[in-house]
Amino acid sequence: MKKTVLELDLAGYSTIARTLEENLHAPIVLQFNQQIQSFVDAGLAAIDALRQKTVMATPGDGALLVFDSAEDAHRFAEAVHQATQSHNAEKTLSSARRWFRMGAATGDIAMESRNGGGHEIAGVTIANAVRLEAAARIGELVIDVATYCDLPSELKAIYGPEEDVIGKREEKFRARRCVMITLTDPGSLVPTEHCTNRDEESGIKIDTGKALIELQINREIDDFSQQQQDHLLSAIRQFLKVGEPIRVVCKRRGSVWLTLELSAEQAERLQWAVKGGEFAHLDVVDAKLANDLIDRNEPGPGQAFTRPDDRARPRVNVPGRRLEQVEQELDSGFRTWALRQLIEPAEALLDLARAVLDNARDYPNRSDHFVLSLERVNESIECLLAIFRRILEPGKSESSGIAFNSQLRHDIRSYVARIIGYCELWCEDVDAPFVKAFSDDLHRIIQITRDLVDNSIDDLLGYAKATIRPDSDQPMSSYAEVGYIAAQVDMAGRQAERIVGTLLVVADKEINRDILRRFLERQGHKILLAQNGRDALQLVRSQAFDLVLLDLIMPEMSGWQVLGQLKADPRLRQLPVLMISSLNEIDSLVRCIEMGADDYLSLPVNPVLLRARVNACLEKKRLRDRELSYLGRIKRVEKRARESLLAVLPEPIVKRLKGNRRPKPRRHRNVAILFADIVDFTSYCDQHEPEEVVRSLDELIHSWEQSALVHRVQKIRTSGDSFMAAAGLLEKVENPVLNCVRFGLDMIAAVQRLPNRWNVRVGIDFGPVVAGVVGSRQYLYDLWGSTVNTAARMESHGTAGAITLSMRAWRRVSELCRGSQQIVDVKGKGLLPTMRFEGFAS
Q1: Dihedral sign computed on CA atoms, order 800, 806, 812, 815
Q2: How does DSSP assign 341-360, residue by residue?
Q3: What is the DSSP string of 4-22?
Q4: In terms of CB atoms within 10 Å, which of 67, 114, 538, 798 comes out highest?
Q5: pTM over cut 0.70
Q6: Contact 502, 542 (CB under 8 A)
Q7: pLDDT by residue (tens digit) across 523-554?
Q8: Separation CA 8–CA 488 (nearest Å)
Q9: In this structure, what DSSP letter does residue 778 have?
């Protein structure tokens, strides 16, 4: 369907977002993204458009929108730029101002509704819009020629001349620009990156580890002396309790604004102090965080400001444990968490990336740029894994400052962005023929990396701030801080994720069953009990369980006998079993492990070991169930893919393709080719509704396909109302021409049964053909040669409701059929004798 796609991008987004995250915290970036979407909402409101029907994607720096008309896209862009002007008019800091670039393209796109809401879209028009946006300047809308042609004349007048714009891959687009906002000095309005370098305009060197805060002084620049400035800085140092001098980055003319360089925590405390009136006697009237590039919530009239240091930290009481003991326990817990949530997924990601790189190096007609990008992806994953491993090195995670500092946050984010960025860059390059072969793997790398960020790295970075012990001034590790909070609730249940399930406890002694039930129910599991092996087998065969805890020594049926029956049953062999027995039966336990038990537990029960081993068994089952689910999904996808291929290709060809072998072109001899064409089909289409035409044609083709199976004739293709088939091609038959004649009679009968009074011509020839698969995106199995052309001419020169055969085809059935000869002038072949089939010989 034809749509206008518009890509909107905020200028300077990466710098702003990185500065916010490094100097404040990640949720601020989310607020920043929400502010960007408020401009999108303003544009949608101006044209009365609904977000759920118009906005297709919302990356952090903007949005991708689809409009029914080019005019709607233009009006939307105007409204967004007007909204930014209104926003910027109220801002004194350049870093708080917002500016957008936009690009729009018009063309056909594919759009499909998602199950969970929203739409899935695809098409080269989307990529064109993105590239046009990249070529736009601040305050501009750049559109392609198709979009310009669809605009009304009054809007065309405000666009500039047609020009060539260069895309990110050096491709050229014909486009026009509309300048919606004129900037006198755009460079000063776009936020610049706060990094350790020399700013050309101001000559300021800014430390990346610092935050900037601007203080507004209620004085003119000429009335604010150096002595007053030194007095103010001394008061700030005393308030913040810092010994080193505070550096003044710059001083603005007019009303005095001092820009100071502090730590993020110091800058935030100072801001609240100024707003609470702490420095009013020094004529300081306002303070704004220069790195806090979005508007912060400020108290309303009559509300009091609360200083961060006034909020006393609650003390955590851990009865019966010394502080050092708790930290030591939490160190061990943190390392276990990091190994499972960071190291193992990152190692799996590296294995996948290495496999993709090896395949890319061996791929025919590979791109050296693609291989280089994959090498950089692998390097980034290796660096990410090295960071995680350094965090776990004893004595380094706290004392050396390697792990928990802003550099850690920056490095991890940089490598993650590099991994996702390279993969997404190539996923977008739909024109590269080799990309399709690696598309699924690239998307898997992107998804695993994002899952790693969402589920684990964010947790790690959230721990990165050092905190102060309640009973000392010494910093403690972030995971010890988590431990204090957990201890306040329940030190026995510190796990970030609790796995629960339905468990069957099998033991002959009631006291053992009761003890296990109590321990396991306390952990959230649903528990069922069985006092012997026979009862246990009846239960597992009647309902689903996640784990069986099986006593080894029982009357009637021992634990290893029950285990043997479970592992012999195909429906139950995957059920995890945890054996339970006393220490002096270790040989029997080993025998059970060899028979397929997952683990064992010795009596008396240790609650910590019980919880750990139950959770390990449940985790194995969950992963196993997930694997089976994935395998089932893969089989269903393979089945659908096979059915889709069989709809367009013969089964022998599909088998060769499934084996990663492209079918070689072959010359087949003694093949009968049949062509059929509906008479006056074009005029029928012009006089009837499309739904009626397609419905009738689909019914007819389906009937023909069924008849082809009956007569062992292979359908080759349909083109509009034309039908092509062959006999003796992929399946040997005794008389290919006779099969085609019988099939042709069924085709004529099927047409004549339809109520719309269609008729059909059928032509048949016999001889050698060349067969093969052509195309790389949409496969087509086709036939070529003189036999194919002659069969087509037999059909076109034939009679409606009859079958026309060439002479070499007629010779194959002449003893079985009756017919009349006709001489026809065939294009490219001259006068040829043909035979019209009139029935079978008696």
Answers
A1: positive
A2: IIIHHHHHHHHHHHHHHHHH
A3: EEEEEEETTHHHHHHHHHH
A4: 798
A5: no
A6: no
A7: 889 999 998 999 999 999 999 999 999 988 88
A8: 48
A9: S
